[in-house]
Write a structure and sequence with these properties.
Chain lengths: 363, 363
């Protein structure tokens, strides 16, 4: 059969218009702020920040800056859309020699499948501060619960999640993150997520998926130095367990001076909450650089002394995790000697989980 | 004792001069080309490239471009210097959303300790194409053997290794990479090293350290499509074992058309060399994107059919590794669904090692 040229042309135009309609109009964007946030210590004035303006008073400037980054925050929603997109704006363009752009500025999507969170895909990042990316398409159209992790080492100005126009998107009726139980992790760059390959592989996020609890990432890169203002803040954050992984940043002298009053304050203001103290990961270059190696040993010696003093003084419900239990012994778990890769984060999560379970059980 | 002001001033000047002398003059740079290269298929006109100009004839332009990247090449040397620096030039500035700058453009240093390669440190990368970085300092001054991996997704124009002026640096007297045994890996971006956190964590490099053999990285990102020119080239590369991990890139139709003649050519020209065929890693987004999932299944079905056909026709010494054996079943081994992180690379190396041992034993 010969198709008349005019009809063929018309059909082509219609097809092109349908395609344009799909690409431009068939996606409906909803503001993520209307969905459900998880991984937040408290409500904040700027929803994608970790510490509220009012709580930042007295904190060091570096911590205040890092508290504006979105590490550990995730958006929960359910949708039956077969495709999911995201548009988000970043306050600044970031370059990190030891992290992927996906990890420092991208998004990481999981879906609940048979009661477990399973990786779906990432929103990669191009250069610039305005991002607009497809995360997944061609899914079946059953209703599913999703969790979207935000950037680890950047902030989020605005975030919109795109689904098909005819699909439902809403806060989940039965959120799979149990907000009744909360683990609060205070620490350094390792806690904040350097150097996970994507936001969901920072170890607080791994712990969150494995326990089902709400896990709060209070990792402040290079700046977890146990100042009194941080103890005061931590004591006001509702928790069922505190993890203190803050030994990599302070000097041995600072640990000597600060760790005892810091933990004592926390214990006195939260007498029933278990505290897990984590020694610093042994810097792998410290096996070669003798100065670095000595500093790491001194840091761990000082926190060990504080722990033993607390025990001697009768403090209870304090747990302690030694450096040689954290990331294996093949020396392969870091990108640069100190910052953990997904291999390191998987190992430290494996090490922490039984301690957390024990702590929560006793509580 | 009171120190006279003038003496104090003089002492300060001398100290400052000593410091300047250390920082500016105390490092001696040697051209890495004068040391020992490993991980190279053959000698090439440009030493930091993977395939020589003369061998590139007839290869697809994409493969020719990628062959200029230095994935898998490492420099072996021994030195008693307490510090090691590097200056290197890159042909271009690279941005990759799913890789760290250290991995695509940086250097990764290992040292031999008690007969095993142990991670020492990385040469991070700043922006730009001229890099000059300290890798390690404060080591003891015993003579040690080092291996420095080159960038995975960039080239190297020039490379100089810096040691203390009074130290010895030379090709190792007893290189710890056994060049008498060679494993040649042909494959996609996964083989080239996306998305290892640093050059030494690409799986051919992990295999190299674990076996002690020379392992040749012929990974060509997105471009391992089994063209006849590649079979012809591979057959000329001296090997004790071929690993064909080239299923992620070609379409199911291309695998159907190309895999049989490709492997047949290799077998006929190298009748005694074991061949290990690896199915494609199951793209993790393929559990959600039904089109992607179907394509991956079709790719693996096609290579499976070729393998069974070869067996039926009496071809021997061919090994086969299924997709479900490669990277675990927790869906956490990739940065973006397809490219392996250090967690994924550790798992795929674990899966490949026993097959390699079996293949080499039988040979």
């Amino acid at each position: 059969m010969k198709i008349p040229k005019r009809k063929f042309f018309l059909a082509a135009v219609v097809l092109l218009m349908m395609q344009l309609a799909w690409s431009q109009d068939s996606i409906l964007y909803v503001d993520a702020a209307t969905l459900l946030m998880t991984g937040k210590a408290k409500t904040t004035d700027s929803i994608y920040q970790r510490i509220d303006t009012i709580d930042r008073k007295g904190m060091p400037p570096a911590v205040i800056g890092l508290a504006k980054q979105s590490a550990g925050i995730a958006v929960l929603f359910e949708t039956n859309s077969t495709a999911i997109r995201a548009k988000w704006s970043l306050p600044k363009e970031v370059y990190m020699h030891n992290m992927t752009p996906i990890a420092h500025s991208g998004l990481d999507l999981y879906c609940l499948k048979d009661g477990k969170w399973q990786f779906v895909g990432v929103a990669r990042t191009g250069k610039g501060i305005h991002q607009d990316q497809l995360i997944v398409r061609n899914m079946d159209s059953t209703m599913k619960q999703f969790m979207l992790y935000l950037p680890l080492y950047n902030g989020v100005g605005s975030l919109q999640i795109g689904v098909q126009r005819n699909a439902i998107i809403q806060p989940p009726a039965h959120p799979a993150v149990n907000k009744a139980k909360r683990i609060v992790v205070y620490g350094s760059s390792v806690v904040q997520g350097a150097s996970a390959s994507r936001p969901g592989m920072a170890y607080p996020a791994i712990l969150q998926r494995r326990t089902g609890y709400d896990v709060i990432n209070l990792g402040f890169s290079g700046s977890a130095k146990m100042e009194p203002a941080l103890a005061a803040y931590l004591a006001t954050v509702q928790a069922d367990c505190y993890i203190l992984d803050c030994i990599p940043n302070p000097s041995p002298q600072q640990i000597k001076e600060r760790s005892y009053p810091f933990i004592k304050y926390l214990r006195e203001h939260q007498p029933d909450i278990p505290i897990i103290i984590v020694e610093t990961v042994f810097r792998q270059n410290g096996y070669w650089d003798q100065q670095v190696g000595q500093t790491v040993k001194d840091q761990n010696n000082e926190i060990r002394k504080t722990y033993e003093r607390l025990l001697k003084e009768g403090y209870k419900n304090i747990y302690y995790l030694e450096t040689d239990k954290l990331i294996g012994n093949d020396h392969e778990a870091t990108v640069d000697g100190i910052h953990l890769t997904d291999l390191g984060f998987t190992r430290i999560a494996d090490a922490l989980l039984p301690v957390i379970k024990k702590a929560l059980k006793r509580k």
